[in-house]
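in:
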């Protein structure tokens, strides 16, 4: 295996070798094959996307390649998937501030993973042209495909690897859109071929009215909101035109005061519940900056850290870390944040548009394997909404709903799986919006089986 690794390294381009990450503060020497840096997608505009590649532990040869994108729009994969979900390390606040601890369920146990900050003005990605802050599904997909083409030229040994797209949340727009662009692009004479096999999406944003209906019903069924508030929202709101985000974020094209009042009333009623994981502890800081959390009544992995988001930002904001990752090389005029939208203005109509026609087009071509999964504790993109839009696709049921099982505990159900002619749908018990963090073993097993064409 050592000789194979050396051969692969010798075939890297100079740009790839320059991107090798050899040391990380709080960890030391990096034994994994990790690369990070920028791929320019528009030299005239000075627009470049930041990536982190974590190669499979057994080497890239013969292993799948996953392109991961977080959602938002405007949430960075560097501070999401890489450092707080399924990368090789987590911030180690339990032992040492600004340190790292090993993630025993990192996805690179089974695949090479590329974490992409997209679009520009997300995470460490940037553009020197101010108008690029106006982004949309099509422009984001165009840049992502161009990124892949140029990434493959930088890492030619990955060019023929079976590629899988993956993401969560607003990745429900990014991933199907990019998949369609790749499929259409591959069909053009003389186009650079991308070996796309399919995609897997967690708790995806898909269609505004259905997504919002799923949210309201989930909140109500979990007694997070009252009957009166639920009734008021349905009476006063056009759910096709409302964007409900975290915290106080509510966006309506033509604000109706009673609709806005109803949604804000709902958010007051569920208080400081972590809406991305309704059974998770809430991160709190005392007057001295120390952390304290409430009691978590649900059975979860014992080392979950409700403050991991803050710790990821703190770690990736360290100049020494950015230098080690070859990040922020131009000196961005704003601090790093995972979901801090630094001037990014994402097309509102695209945020509201349905992705169902894209799914229908991809299913009709029968070229890709598609897995959609839902963490059952997610209240922002809950399983109820996902199941509504899956039903709207009117697919043929090929395998009725059945349980699938935990990889660590015999005969313990990890969730359920339903197979349609076009999409496989799985639920994960005990998982929130960021399923790979809250149920790491189950999510790793699910991903591994899917990209290796094995049944869940």
């Amino acid at each position: 295996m050592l000789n194979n690794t050396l051969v692969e390294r010798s075939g890297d381009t100079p740009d790839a070798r320059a991107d090798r990450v050899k040391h990380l503060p709080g960890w030391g020497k990096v034994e994994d094959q990790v690369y990070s840096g920028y791929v320019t997608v528009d030299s005239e505009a000075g627009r470049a996307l930041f990536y982190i590649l974590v190669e499979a532990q057994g080497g890239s040869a013969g292993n799948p390649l996953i392109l991961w994108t977080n959602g938002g729009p405007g949430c960075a994969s560097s501070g999401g998937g890489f450092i707080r979900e399924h990368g090789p390390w987590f911030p180690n606040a339990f032992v040492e501030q600004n340190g790292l601890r090993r993630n025993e369920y990192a996805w690179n146990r089974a695949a090479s993973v590329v974490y992409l900050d997209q679009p520009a003005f997300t995470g460490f990605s940037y553009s020197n042209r101010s108008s690029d802050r106006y982004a949309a599904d099509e422009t984001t997909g165009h840049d992502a495909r161009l990124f892949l083409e140029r990434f493959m030229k930088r890492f030619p040994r990955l060019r023929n690897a079976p590629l899988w797209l993956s993401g969560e949340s607003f990745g429900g727009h990014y991933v199907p859109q990019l998949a369609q662009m790749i499929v259409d692009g591959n069909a053009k004479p003389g186009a650079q071929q991308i070996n796309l096999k399919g995609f897997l999406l967690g708790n995806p944003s898909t269609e505004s009215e259905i997504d919002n209906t799923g949210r309201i019903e989930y909140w109500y069924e979990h007694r997070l909101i009252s009957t009166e508030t639920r009734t008021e929202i349905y009476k006063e709101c056009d759910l096709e035109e409302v964007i409900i985000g975290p915290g106080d974020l509510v966006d309506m094209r033509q604000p109706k005061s009673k609709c806005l009042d109803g949604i804000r009333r709902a958010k007051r009623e569920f208080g400081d519940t972590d809406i991305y994981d309704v059974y998770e502890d809430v991160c709190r800081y005392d007057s001295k900056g120390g952390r304290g959390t409430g009691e978590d009544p649900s059975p979860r992995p014992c080392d979950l850290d409700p403050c991991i988001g803050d710790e990821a930002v703190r770690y990736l904001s360290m100049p020494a870390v950015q230098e080690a990752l070859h990040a922020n090389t131009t000196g961005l005029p704003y601090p790093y944040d995972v979901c801090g939208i630094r001037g990014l203005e994402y097309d509102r109509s695209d945020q509201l548009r349905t992705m169902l026609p894209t799914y229908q087009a991809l299913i009709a071509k029968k070229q890709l394997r598609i897995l959609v999964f839902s963490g059952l504790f997610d209240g922002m993109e809950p399983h109820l909404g996902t199941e509504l839009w899956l039903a709207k696709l009117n697919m043929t049921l090929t395998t009725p709903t059945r349980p699938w099982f935990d990889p660590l505990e015999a005969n313990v159900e990890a969730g359920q799986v339903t197979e349609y002619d076009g999409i496989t749908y799985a639920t994960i018990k005990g998982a929130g919006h960021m399923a790979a963090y809250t149920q790491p073993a189950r999510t790793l097993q699910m991903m591994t089986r899917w990209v290796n064409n094995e049944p869940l």
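note: The radius of gyration is 21 Å.
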